[in-house]
TrEMBL record:
This is Carboxymuconolactone decarboxylase family protein. InterPro entries: AhpD-like (IPR029032), CMD-like (IPR003779). It comes from the Bacteria. Residues 18-100 form the Carboxymuconolactone decarboxylase-like domain. GO terms for molecular function: peroxiredoxin activity. Pfam families: CMD.
Length: 112
């Protein structure tokens, strides 16, 4: 994904703090490799966490990453709908609208 598609703040912070960015990237790689969960399932779990903290930017990012890992639209929607009894219907509806931003635009790129 080109830097033009990345959020400006994300790009600026990565440039301003390259060692932090590198450490975060490395941490992400290490935790993915430490267990038996496949990449697609891991991305859906991270999507659910992003939905739970109501972070639109993180929902966009993790929806893109889930798509890139092979998750279908139905799997992404189901991941979010499963949260209804935990975080509430309004939060689920908001998150569904956020992932549909990604799905409708066909953007399956991901953050580095």
């Amino acid at each position: 994904m080109s830097d033009a598609k990345l959020p400006k703040t994300y790009t600026r912070i990565r440039a301003q703090y390259p060692k932090l960015a590198e450490a975060i990237d490395e941490l992400g790689q290490v935790v993915r490799q430490e267990g038996p969960i496949d990449l697609k399932s891991a991305e859906l779990i991270k999507l659910a966490a992003a939905v739970s903290i109501r972070s639109e930017g993180a929902v966009h990012s993790h929806a893109k990453q889930a798509r890139a890992a092979g998750a279908s639209t139905d799997e992404i929607h189901h991941t979010i709908i499963l949260l209804t009894s935990t975080i509430g219907f309004p939060a689920v509806m908001a998150a569904l609208s956020w992932v549909d931003d990604v799905i409708d635009h066909g953007d399956v790129g991901h953050y580095p």
